[in-house]
Amino acid sequence: MTHDEHTVSVDTKAILGLQFPTDPRWVNLAQLSLADVLSDHAYCEQKAAATCMSLIQRYSQKEELVTALAPIVTEEWGHFRLVLAELHKRGLSLGVQRKDEYVVALIQFCQKGGAEEGRLLDQLLMMAMIEARSCERFKRLSEGLNDEYLRKFYRRFMESEAGHYTLFIELADTYINKEKVRARWNEWLAYEAEVMNGLELRGDRIH
Ligand SMILES: [Fe+2]
Ligand SMILES: [Fe+2]
Protein backbone atom coordinates (compact mmCIF):
# COMPACT_ATOMS: atom_id res chain seq x y z
CA MET A 1 0.00 0.00 0.00
CA THR A 2 1.42 3.38 -0.94
CA HIS A 3 1.44 6.35 1.39
CA ASP A 4 -1.39 8.01 -0.55
CA GLU A 5 -3.60 4.90 -0.53
CA HIS A 6 -3.12 4.63 3.19
CA THR A 7 -3.93 8.30 3.69
CA VAL A 8 -7.15 8.19 1.73
CA SER A 9 -8.34 4.89 3.21
CA VAL A 10 -8.43 6.38 6.67
CA ASP A 11 -11.23 8.67 7.79
CA THR A 12 -10.33 12.33 7.42
CA LYS A 13 -11.01 13.15 11.05
CA ALA A 14 -8.89 10.29 12.28
CA ILE A 15 -5.91 11.17 10.14
CA LEU A 16 -6.14 14.94 10.29
CA GLY A 17 -7.62 15.40 13.73
CA LEU A 18 -10.14 17.95 12.49
CA GLN A 19 -12.71 18.69 15.19
CA PHE A 20 -15.44 20.10 13.00
CA PRO A 21 -16.47 17.89 10.08
CA THR A 22 -17.78 19.81 7.09
CA ASP A 23 -21.56 19.78 6.75
CA PRO A 24 -22.40 17.08 4.16
CA ARG A 25 -24.59 19.61 2.32
CA TRP A 26 -21.56 21.71 1.46
CA VAL A 27 -20.63 19.61 -1.58
CA ASN A 28 -24.15 20.06 -2.98
CA LEU A 29 -23.81 23.80 -2.64
CA ALA A 30 -20.34 23.68 -4.18
CA GLN A 31 -21.73 21.76 -7.13
CA LEU A 32 -24.03 24.71 -7.88
CA SER A 33 -21.13 27.19 -7.74
CA LEU A 34 -18.37 25.35 -9.59
CA ALA A 35 -17.02 28.45 -11.32
CA ASP A 36 -16.55 30.21 -7.96
CA VAL A 37 -15.14 27.10 -6.32
CA LEU A 38 -12.56 26.67 -9.07
CA SER A 39 -11.56 30.34 -8.93
CA ASP A 40 -11.29 30.27 -5.14
CA HIS A 41 -9.36 27.02 -5.31
CA ALA A 42 -6.91 28.54 -7.80
CA TYR A 43 -6.23 31.39 -5.38
CA CYS A 44 -5.75 28.95 -2.50
CA GLU A 45 -3.00 27.24 -4.50
CA GLN A 46 -1.45 30.57 -5.48
CA LYS A 47 -1.38 31.65 -1.82
CA ALA A 48 0.11 28.31 -0.74
CA ALA A 49 2.98 28.77 -3.20
CA ALA A 50 3.49 32.41 -2.19
CA THR A 51 3.47 31.58 1.53
CA CYS A 52 6.06 28.82 1.07
CA MET A 53 8.25 31.30 -0.82
CA SER A 54 7.98 33.86 1.96
CA LEU A 55 8.77 31.21 4.60
CA ILE A 56 11.93 30.37 2.65
CA GLN A 57 12.90 34.05 2.65
CA ARG A 58 12.13 34.57 6.33
CA TYR A 59 13.84 31.39 7.54
CA SER A 60 16.65 31.21 4.99
CA GLN A 61 19.07 30.01 7.70
CA LYS A 62 17.00 26.91 8.39
CA GLU A 63 18.38 24.42 5.93
CA GLU A 64 15.79 21.65 6.37
CA LEU A 65 12.95 24.13 5.99
CA VAL A 66 14.40 25.62 2.81
CA THR A 67 15.06 22.17 1.35
CA ALA A 68 11.61 20.85 2.26
CA LEU A 69 9.64 23.86 1.05
CA ALA A 70 11.47 24.52 -2.23
CA PRO A 71 9.72 21.62 -4.03
CA ILE A 72 6.39 22.49 -2.40
CA VAL A 73 6.50 25.90 -4.09
CA THR A 74 6.77 24.12 -7.45
CA GLU A 75 4.03 21.68 -6.52
CA GLU A 76 1.58 24.35 -5.33
CA TRP A 77 2.31 26.45 -8.38
CA GLY A 78 1.64 23.36 -10.48
CA HIS A 79 -1.70 23.04 -8.69
CA PHE A 80 -2.48 26.65 -9.49
CA ARG A 81 -1.77 26.02 -13.16
CA LEU A 82 -3.92 22.87 -13.18
CA VAL A 83 -6.89 24.74 -11.73
CA LEU A 84 -6.32 27.70 -14.03
CA ALA A 85 -6.30 25.31 -17.03
CA GLU A 86 -9.53 23.78 -15.75
CA LEU A 87 -11.13 27.25 -15.57
CA HIS A 88 -9.98 28.07 -19.09
CA LYS A 89 -11.18 24.73 -20.41
CA ARG A 90 -14.64 25.67 -19.16
CA GLY A 91 -14.50 29.13 -20.73
CA LEU A 92 -14.10 30.70 -17.29
CA SER A 93 -11.51 33.17 -16.04
CA LEU A 94 -9.61 33.45 -12.78
CA GLY A 95 -11.54 36.53 -11.71
CA VAL A 96 -10.95 38.69 -8.68
CA GLN A 97 -9.67 37.27 -5.43
CA ARG A 98 -12.25 37.31 -2.65
CA LYS A 99 -11.46 38.13 0.96
CA ASP A 100 -10.42 34.86 2.59
CA GLU A 101 -12.24 35.04 5.94
CA TYR A 102 -10.99 31.61 6.98
CA VAL A 103 -7.33 32.48 6.53
CA VAL A 104 -7.82 35.93 8.10
CA ALA A 105 -9.26 34.22 11.20
CA LEU A 106 -6.35 31.76 11.36
CA ILE A 107 -3.77 34.55 11.07
CA GLN A 108 -5.33 36.15 14.15
CA PHE A 109 -4.44 33.05 16.16
CA CYS A 110 -0.72 33.29 15.29
CA GLN A 111 1.61 34.68 17.95
CA LYS A 112 2.86 38.05 16.75
CA GLY A 113 5.51 38.78 19.35
CA GLY A 114 7.60 36.72 21.72
CA ALA A 115 10.34 34.24 20.95
CA GLU A 116 11.10 33.31 17.35
CA GLU A 117 10.39 29.66 18.11
CA GLY A 118 6.75 30.35 18.96
CA ARG A 119 6.23 32.42 15.83
CA LEU A 120 7.82 29.78 13.61
CA LEU A 121 5.71 27.09 15.25
CA ASP A 122 2.47 28.98 14.58
CA GLN A 123 3.37 29.70 10.98
CA LEU A 124 4.07 26.04 10.33
CA LEU A 125 0.95 24.89 12.18
CA MET A 126 -1.22 27.42 10.39
CA MET A 127 -0.01 26.00 7.10
CA ALA A 128 -0.65 22.45 8.36
CA MET A 129 -4.14 23.53 9.40
CA ILE A 130 -5.01 24.99 6.01
CA GLU A 131 -3.64 21.88 4.28
CA ALA A 132 -5.69 19.62 6.58
CA ARG A 133 -8.94 21.51 6.03
CA SER A 134 -8.33 21.79 2.28
CA CYS A 135 -7.67 18.07 2.20
CA GLU A 136 -10.99 17.44 3.93
CA ARG A 137 -12.87 19.73 1.55
CA PHE A 138 -11.22 18.14 -1.49
CA LYS A 139 -12.21 14.76 -0.11
CA ARG A 140 -15.83 15.93 0.02
CA LEU A 141 -15.60 17.11 -3.57
CA SER A 142 -13.89 13.89 -4.67
CA GLU A 143 -16.72 11.86 -3.18
CA GLY A 144 -19.78 14.03 -3.70
CA LEU A 145 -19.59 15.77 -7.07
CA ASN A 146 -21.73 14.31 -9.87
CA ASP A 147 -19.06 14.58 -12.53
CA GLU A 148 -16.63 11.65 -12.49
CA TYR A 149 -13.84 13.66 -14.09
CA LEU A 150 -14.06 16.30 -11.35
CA ARG A 151 -14.21 13.66 -8.63
CA LYS A 152 -10.89 12.30 -9.89
CA PHE A 153 -9.54 15.83 -10.32
CA TYR A 154 -10.21 16.55 -6.64
CA ARG A 155 -8.96 13.21 -5.42
CA ARG A 156 -5.54 14.14 -6.72
CA PHE A 157 -5.52 17.40 -4.78
CA MET A 158 -6.79 15.66 -1.68
CA GLU A 159 -3.86 13.23 -1.74
CA SER A 160 -1.35 15.97 -2.34
CA GLU A 161 -2.59 18.22 0.47
CA ALA A 162 -2.63 15.29 2.91
CA GLY A 163 1.10 14.92 2.22
CA HIS A 164 1.66 18.64 2.79
CA TYR A 165 -0.16 18.56 6.10
CA THR A 166 2.25 15.85 7.28
CA LEU A 167 5.24 17.77 5.96
CA PHE A 168 4.42 20.94 7.91
CA ILE A 169 3.93 18.99 11.14
CA GLU A 170 7.23 17.18 10.57
CA LEU A 171 8.98 20.47 9.92
CA ALA A 172 7.66 21.81 13.22
CA ASP A 173 8.99 18.66 14.93
CA THR A 174 12.39 19.27 13.31
CA TYR A 175 12.85 22.60 15.06
CA ILE A 176 10.67 22.46 18.12
CA ASN A 177 10.15 20.03 20.98
CA LYS A 178 7.55 17.43 19.96
CA GLU A 179 5.42 17.82 23.09
CA LYS A 180 5.25 21.56 22.50
CA VAL A 181 4.22 20.95 18.90
CA ARG A 182 1.46 18.49 19.92
CA ALA A 183 0.14 20.79 22.64
CA ARG A 184 -0.02 23.80 20.34
CA TRP A 185 -1.49 21.69 17.52
CA ASN A 186 -4.36 20.70 19.82
CA GLU A 187 -5.00 24.39 20.49
CA TRP A 188 -5.00 25.04 16.75
CA LEU A 189 -7.49 22.23 16.16
CA ALA A 190 -9.84 23.60 18.81
CA TYR A 191 -9.55 27.15 17.49
CA GLU A 192 -10.07 26.09 13.89
CA ALA A 193 -13.21 24.16 14.83
CA GLU A 194 -14.60 27.36 16.38
CA VAL A 195 -13.73 29.33 13.25
CA MET A 196 -15.40 26.78 10.97
CA ASN A 197 -18.44 26.68 13.19
CA GLY A 198 -18.71 30.46 13.00
CA LEU A 199 -18.36 30.76 9.24
CA GLU A 200 -21.44 30.75 7.07
CA LEU A 201 -21.75 27.51 5.04
CA ARG A 202 -21.11 28.70 1.51
CA GLY A 203 -20.71 26.64 -1.61
CA ASP A 204 -18.81 29.28 -3.54
CA ARG A 205 -15.50 28.79 -1.77
CA ILE A 206 -13.18 26.07 -0.57
CA HIS A 207 -13.22 27.19 3.10
FE1 LIG B 1 -1.98 22.51 -3.39
FE1 LIG C 1 -0.70 22.11 -0.25
Quick structural summary:
With 207 residues, this protein is mostly helical.
List keywords for this structure.
mainly alpha; binds fe (ii) ion; 0% strand; 207 residues; Ferritin
Cα-atom radius of gyration:
17 Å
The assigned structural class equals mainly alpha
Beta-strand fraction estimate: under 5%
Bound molecules: fe (ii) ion
CATH fold-level name: Ferritin
Number of strands: 0
Main pleated-sheet profile: none
> Total domains, how many?
1
Tell me the name of the CATH class.
Answer: Mainly Alpha
Number of helices: 9
- Tell me the CATH architecture: Up-down Bundle
Distance between the termini: 30 Å
- How are helices and strands ordered from N to C? HHHHHHHHH
Percent helix, as a range, is: over 70%
Q: What would you call the shape?
A: globular
